[in-house]
Amino acid sequence: MRVLEERIREEGLILSETVLKVDSFLNHQVDTELALQIGQEFKTVFGHLPVTKILTVEASGIQFAMAAGIALGVPFIYAKKKKAVTLSEGVYSAPVHSFTRQEDYVISISQKYLGPEDKVLIVDDFLATGAALVGLADIVEESGAQLLGVGCVIEKSFQEGRSLLEKRGIPVHALARISSMAPGEVHFIANEEQIKESAGC
Ligand code: 5GP
């Protein structure tokens, strides 16, 4: 998604070879117009599938799951990271190791909102080590629902997330795929549409 790549180039802060900060437009202050465009892009990619629910993890996946939910006309569920008293029984849970915070936590969702009748699209802001999304995929499996695919806004392709998911047979689509980065420079893997565009197709 070209507009997204441009914003990453212009505003992204590369804190190290593995951490990209996009707090000015994606995951602290949110450019709502861009978030809605991201939702539309997920519709373009996944709209032909019979998705009934979108699943994400709080907090930074929520705005994109909501935008995708609006575009696809389905509800979204966000997994909670802290065990709330209101979520005391009947939950699906999975352990996750956080790449950015270097800590372990458990994600949970209520069994009331996901079941064998559901067809799920997982949406998140970043695909890095894949730990968060593998945790969500485990929850979908436990619920008996069918996982149709994973859409993420930014993929750091040099980390192992995509291969972990693809090994499980889960289709993955990322709107911006970073092949490498270093302070002051970021390189993207062109997606199929961009390759066709530059070939004049
Ligand atoms: P993963 O489980 O794939 O390693 O990443 C889990 C979460 O960590 C992502 O959903 C995202 O919120 C956060 N994350 C991973 N890498 C980055 C990064 O480079 N920058 C930011 N801002 N968040 C990241």
UniProtKB/TrEMBL annotation:
Q: Where in the cell is it found?
A: Cytoplasm
- Tell me the ranges covered by the Phosphoribosyltransferase domain, including all copies: 52-159
Q: In which pathway does it act?
A: Purine metabolism; XMP biosynthesis via salvage pathway; XMP from xanthine: step 1/1
The EC number of this protein is: 2.4.2.22
Record carries keyword Cytoplasm = yes
Residues annotated as binding xanthine are: 20, 27, 156
Q: Name one GO molecular function term.
A: xanthine phosphoribosyltransferase activity
Q: Which InterPro entries match?
A: PRTase-like (IPR029057), PRTase_dom (IPR000836), Pur/Pyrimidine_PRTase (IPR050118), Xanthine_PRibTrfase (IPR010079)
| Annotated catalysed reactions | XMP + diphosphate = xanthine + 5-phospho-alpha-D-ribose 1-diphosphate
HAMAP family in the record: XPRTase (MF_01184)
- So what family is this one in? Belongs to the purine/pyrimidine phosphoribosyltransferase family. Xpt subfamily.
Q: What does this protein do?
A: Converts the preformed base xanthine, a product of nucleic acid breakdown, to xanthosine 5'-monophosphate (XMP), so it can be reused for RNA or DNA synthesis.
What is the protein name for this chain?
Answer: Xanthine phosphoribosyltransferase
* Lineage start: Bacteria, Bacillati, Bacillota, Bacilli, Bacillales
Gene name per UniProt: xpt_2
